[in-house]
């Protein structure tokens, strides 16, 4: 109980001093809340002024606050059919859960990996292939383990679920055979038939050119990984995606083997401006595994969350609210802010940086917050943001204020 | 100024509006326009029979299209609207395929499609590498709006070299996108004008009845192949209620038995399985029941009886719409138990797919 009261007090202070950021047409949205001291989910709430929302947040102090990505003619109506769907933002939810490389990683590293995924979505897909304007995009740190990316162009509002699914299939490359985007050529050599795959020119649109460009880019980063940390790290990198240690070792062995010209194969993948480069692999199996790795690196991983994009009635975290399981702000970010964003510093509310609380951690915890490392075991006075984070995550109990 | 024969071919274009703007509704429903109304009515009816009426020329076709639209606004029945839209869509597609580029562009603009002419480099590259003759570039949002309604690889966004939001497509695909855009715009317009239905119904009276009868006839002929495997979850409440009574040994009136047999037979249940259901009836006699089932299903008589529509069921007192308050039954356009079954079945399978 003390835990919930502590968090509630901290959250209330935050909501007193800060305003949430309301979405466009905020009176047409449905709002939903979860609380520290009640078990139900409050849904079908509507607000008609900013002050009304502020009052609600300060008096009820929700643990989690959500709003609908859709807007309705009657947002408080409980009957979905009578709500009167008018349109919805196009939303992408990227979460660490759906990216295999985050498995077993520390929170900080996890957030880094998800951030790269979000950058890829924004730059390669939304601004690149889809040609959206930067001003149509809104990025938000989810407060937890990911990012929400909104497209708020009038062009997308009326898209139905099936149409959104088409867009999701494009960015996730789901159930798509990567060989479709390669040029297939049958070759007969010494009476043996072999299928060769050639690359499309890099300037080609869609997945066709993307594969050629990404092979160069990804190979370059694999090479620098190799030069900086050695072979084993590269094997780990492959294994994180392919989940096959033996195969990963064989690919790395092949890619970093010196050829007759005293260069490594991977250098061919980086430098050669020609469509034949997939022929360097020792066997077709290694080539296919490498392509599989490339596909995973190109596509946006988020299948399990596909509903967020295709469910046109979905609720999503209110920007500027606090995440009840971390105490971080669901923070809005411009593209520029996003590039330099560090959630473990920038998403901490100002009022949590003032004052200290005594907490008790039964098991030893290590965490990096606000640029400092904390190692806590037993009872200890810590800055409030550390206390909130650990108590919210259930890793420590609140004892008293210091 | 667009040629009138061109507008007759594409009477949905905004430019066709000036031909109908000056005609008042009461004029249109006066004897002067009887031929136009007949054509419009038959046009809608023909969409259920898959026949193509002789092509009207000039202003008459523009007027007939407009009148058909008024009928559909008055009816507000999604099945009839969809049927007509699809029927028109098919002839639209074949006309567009044989048109010159400038006409296709004109229709595309009229349908509100965002498109542009492809640059030479894009045409050359697609031809060289994909063996693909690029006709136009469509903005990807307009592409998915239409393409998501069509199956096949040629309509999946991921298969296209998308760049800066533009999708290069060949003429066949472009025309199919236009075709679907027509259906979307047309059905939306009719739905949006549902507020006018009441006033229009004053004029169209009996003509509507004729159209709705064709629709019910069409639905009652749904074949068991179309309806797929028997799925009892999708049964309409009237059938479920009869089955419950039967299982509890309630003696059913003749009309209820007749309805049950025609329905179960039409959705593909075998006569043996139907017979088993009747075994719980208090007056069950196998030989009699078997004979009756065979009679109704056409095994003996050679005449296969049609499944009665909702209106008939109401007259027999078999409709339970007001008792069960089923949402689907409450819809104005729900006129036939087979329609209920088909839609519910589709809905159930969609739901089970998405929850997997």
What does this structure look like?
The complex is a heterodimer of chains A (402) and B (356). Chain A is globular, with a radius of gyration of 25 Å. Chain A contains 14 helices and 15 strands. In chain A, the strands form 5 sheets. In chain A, strands 2-1-3-11 form a 4-stranded antiparallel β-sheet, with no helix packed on it. In chain A, strands 6-8-7-12 form a 4-stranded antiparallel β-sheet. Chain A has 3 domains: 2-172 and 302-346, DNA primase, PRIM domain, CATH 3.90.920; 178-298, no CATH class; 355-401. The longest helix of chain A is centred in the middle third of the chain and has 24 residues, at 206-229. With 402 residues, chain A is an alpha+beta fold. With 356 residues, chain B is mainly alpha-helical. A 3-stranded antiparallel β-sheet of chain B has the order 1-2-3. In chain B, helix 15 (271-278) crosses helix 16 (286-296). Chain B is built from 20 helices and 3 strands. Chain B is globular, with a radius of gyration of 25 Å. Classes of the chains: A alpha+beta (402), B mainly alpha (356). The interface between A and B is medium-sized, with 29 and 23 residues.
Task: Find the CATH topology of the largest domain in chain A.
Answer: DNA primase, PRIM domain
* Biggest pleated-sheet summary of chain A: 4 strands, antiparallel
Which structural class is indicated by helix and strand composition of chain A?
alpha+beta
Strand order of the largest sheet of chain A: 2-1-3-11
Low-confidence sequence ranges of chain B: none
Give the oligomer, counting copies of the same chain as homo and different chains as hetero. Answer: heterodimer
Please tally the helical runs of chain B, counting DSSP H or I stretches of 4 or more residues: 20
Termini of chain A, distance in Å?
19 Å
CATH class categorisation of the largest domain in chain A: Alpha Beta
Q: Which band does the percent of strand residues of chain B land in?
A: under 5%
Low-confidence stretches of chain A: none
CATH superfamily assignment of the largest domain in chain A? DNA primase, PRIM domain
Shape of chain A, please? globular
Count of discrete domains of chain A: 3
Please give the radius of gyration of chain A in angstroms: 25 Å
CATH architecture of the largest domain in chain A: Alpha-Beta Complex
Query: Which bin fits the share of residues in helices of chain B?
Result: 55-70%
Label the structural class of chain B: mainly alpha
How far apart are the termini of chain B? 55 Å
The H-and-E topology of chain B, N to C, reads as HHHHHHHEHEHEHHHHHHHHHHH
């Amino acid at each position: 109980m003390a835990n919930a009261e502590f968090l509630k007090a901290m959250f209330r202070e935050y909501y007193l001093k800060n305003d949430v950021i309301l979405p466009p047409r905020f009176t047409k949205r449905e709002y939903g809340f979860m609380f520290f001291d009640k078990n139900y989910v409050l849904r079908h709430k509507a607000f008609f002024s900013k002050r009304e929302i502020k009052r609600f947040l300060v008096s009820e102090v929700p643990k989690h606050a959500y709003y609908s990505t859709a807007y309705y003619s009657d947002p408080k109506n409980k009957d979905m059919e009578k709500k009167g769907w008018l349109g919805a933002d196009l939303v992408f939810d990227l979460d660490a859960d759906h990216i295999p490389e985050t498995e077993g990683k520390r929170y900080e590293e996890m957030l880094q990996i998800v951030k790269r995924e979000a950058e890829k979505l924004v730059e390669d897909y939304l601004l690149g292939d889809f040609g959206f304007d930067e001003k149509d995009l809104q990025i938000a740190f989810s407060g937890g383990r990911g990012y929400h990316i909104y497209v708020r162009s009038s062009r997308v509002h009326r898209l139905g679920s099936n149409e959104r699914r088409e867009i999701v299939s494009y960015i996730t490359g789901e159930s798509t055979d990567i060989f479709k985007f390669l040029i297939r050529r049958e070759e007969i050599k010494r009476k043996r038939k072999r299928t060769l795959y050639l690359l499309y020119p890099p300037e080609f649109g869609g997945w066709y050119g993307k594969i050629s460009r990404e092979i160069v880019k990804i190979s370059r980063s694999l090479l620098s990984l190799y030069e900086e940390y050695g072979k084993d790290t590269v094997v780990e990198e492959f294994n994180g995606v392919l989940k096959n240690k033996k195969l990963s070792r064989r690919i790395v062995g092949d890619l970093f083997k010196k050829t007759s010209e005293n260069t490594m194969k991977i250098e061919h993948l980086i430098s050669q401006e020609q469509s034949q480069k997939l022929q360097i692999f020792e066997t077709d199996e290694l080539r296919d595994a490498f392509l599989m790795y490339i596909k995973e690196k190109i596509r946006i991983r988020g299948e399990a969350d596909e509903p967020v994009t295709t469910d046109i009635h979905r609720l999503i975290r209110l920007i500027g609210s606090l995440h009840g399981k971390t105490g971080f702000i669901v923070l809005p970010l411009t593209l520029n802010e996003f590039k330099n964003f560090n959630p473990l510093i920038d998403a901490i509310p100002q009022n949590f940086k003032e004052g200290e609380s005594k907490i008790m951690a039964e098991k030893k915890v290590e965490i990096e917050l606000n640029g400092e490392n904390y190692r806590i075991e037993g009872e200890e006075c810590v800055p409030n943001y550390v206390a909130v984070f650990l108590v919210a995550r259930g890793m420590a109990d609140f004892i008293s204020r210091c | 100024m667009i040629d009138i024969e061109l507008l007759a071919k594409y009477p949905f274009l905004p430019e066709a509006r000036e031909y109908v703007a000056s005609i008042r509704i009461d004029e249109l429903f006066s004897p002067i326009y009887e031929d136009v109304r007949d054509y419009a009515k038959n046009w809608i009816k023909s969409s259920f029979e898959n026949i193509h009426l002789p092509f009207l020329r000039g202003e008459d076709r523009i007027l007939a299209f407009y009148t058909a639209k008024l009928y559909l606004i008055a009816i507000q029945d999604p099945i009839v609207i969809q049927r007509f839209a699809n029927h028109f869509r098919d002839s639209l597609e074949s006309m567009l395929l044989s048109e010159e580029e400038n006409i296709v562009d004109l229709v595309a603009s009229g349908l509100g499609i965002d498109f542009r002419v492809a640059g030479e480099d894009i045409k050359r590259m697609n031809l060289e590498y994909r063996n693909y003759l690029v006709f136009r570039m469509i903005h990807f949002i307009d592409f998915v709006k239409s393409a998501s309604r069509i199956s096949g690889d040629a309509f999946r966004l991921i298969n296209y070299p998308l760049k800066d939001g533009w999708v290069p497509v060949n003429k066949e695909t472009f025309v199919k996108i236009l075709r679907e855009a027509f259906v979307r715009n047309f059905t939306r317009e009719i739905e949006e004008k549902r507020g006018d239905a009441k006033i229009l119904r004053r004029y169209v009276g009996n003509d509507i009845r004729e159209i709705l009868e064709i629709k019910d006839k069409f639905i009652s002929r749904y074949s068991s192949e179309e309806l797929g495997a028997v799925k009892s979850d999708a049964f309409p409440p009237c059938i479920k209620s009869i089955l419950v009574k039967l299982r509890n040994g309630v003696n059913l009136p003749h009309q209820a038995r007749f309805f049950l047999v025609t329905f179960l037979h039409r959705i593909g249940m075998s006569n043996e399985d139907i017979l088993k259901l009747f075994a719980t009836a208090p007056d069950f006699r196998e030989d009699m029941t078997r004979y009756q089932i065979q009679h109704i299903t056409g095994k003996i008589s050679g005449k296969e009886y049609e499944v009665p529509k909702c209106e008939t069921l109401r007259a027999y007192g078999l409709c339970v719409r007001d008792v069960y308050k089923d949402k689907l039954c409450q819809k104005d356009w729900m006129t036939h138990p087979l329609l209920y079954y088909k839609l519910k079945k589709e809905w159930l399978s969609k739901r089970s797919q998405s929850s997997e």
